[in-house]
Design brief:
Radius of gyration: 23 Å
Number of helices: 13
CATH superfamily: MetI-like
Mean pLDDT: 86
Largest sheet: none
CATH architecture: Orthogonal Bundle
Structural class: mainly alpha
Low-confidence stretches: none
């Protein structure tokens, strides 16, 4: 058995599969309305506590809303925003990176200068500034988080293209009359997908954490839509009296980010031939 099939990888797969299924089936499996307020049941502890009730397995928040139902619905926000933002950043960064690496010259200089300019600004501050101007909404959130991560894809794609554009198979396609666009998108792009997939897997953790950060600051999806970052923000005032309000959403966020990071490492180990050669036989 290789290191790619370690117990951590299996646990990460199982956790993310369970999270995805629960997010898809949220209306069918959640025991309560995530936005339903019931002040008479506010601040109930988890069910296993002496004062808890089994109809609220993870307890309730300061408005009497079921915490388990809100966490399940919050996973929908994190996963949808995360995948959509990675798609936006991946397409934009890959397009610019492949163009810069294959074309070279002034085009390469301009694109890399734009990348350096963006790296000069802290991602979180840039995201806060743009969201504050455009206003919090699902579309703005996806675009801002996606655009904030294009540089990584562009640099990886550019580096891979620079190493491939003078290869024999590229010269052969050119000799047969293939245009630059045909060579870039039909021959070079398929050859560099593996490292880009690794980057995308690792970037999912970043996008989910960034979405939660913006929601924590009140710049993500607005109430009554439940989000993990918003739940952490609600629970910070009750850390000493109702620790469960912030603890369980925080655990969900931490486990999700760790699982995506572990799967990213596993994908890298699986697709990098240099790492495969280093494995003991």
């Amino acid at each position: 058995m290789t290191k790619g099939f370690s117990p951590l990888v299996i646990c990460s797969w199982l956790f993310l599969c369970g999270l995805t299924v629960s997010a898809i089936l949220a209306p069918q499996i959640t025991p309560h309305n995530p936005a339903g307020e019931r002040l008479i049941d506010r601040l109930l502890p988890p069910a296993w506590d002496e004062e808890g009730e089994w109809r609220y397995l993870l307890g309730t928040d300061h408005l009497g809303r079921d915490l388990l139902s809100r966490i399940i619905y919050g996973s929908r926000v994190s996963l949808v925003v995360g995948f959509a933002a990675v798609l936006v950043g991946g397409i934009l960064g890959t397009t610019l990176g492949v163009t810069a690496g294959f074309t070279g010259g002034r085009t390469d200089e301009v694109i890399m200068a734009l990348a350096d300019m963006q790296l000069a600004f802290p991602t979180i501050l840039l995201s806060i500034a743009i969201i504050a101007v455009l206003g919090p909404s699902f579309t703005n959130l996806v675009v801002v988080i996606g655009v904030s991560g294009w540089v990584t894809y562009a640099r990886v794609a550019r580096g891979q293209v620079l190493s491939l554009r003078e290869k024999e198979f590229v010269e052969a396609v050119r000799a047969q009359g293939g245009s630059q666009c045909h060579v870039m998108w039909h021959h070079i792009l398929p050859s560099i997908l593996s490292p880009l997939i690794v980057v995308a897997t690792l970037d999912l953790a970043r996008t989910i954490i960034l979405e939660s950060t913006l929601s924590f600051l009140g710049l993500g999806l607005q109430p009554p839509t439940p989000s993990w970052g918003g739940m952490l923000s609600d629970g910070r005032e009750y850390l000493l009296t109702a620790w469960w309000i912030a603890t369980f959403p925080g655990l969900a966020l931490m486990l999700t980010a760790l699982s995506f990071n572990r799967l990213g490492d596993w994908t890298r180990d699986l697709t990098d031939p240099r790492l495969r050669r280093m494995e003991p036989r």
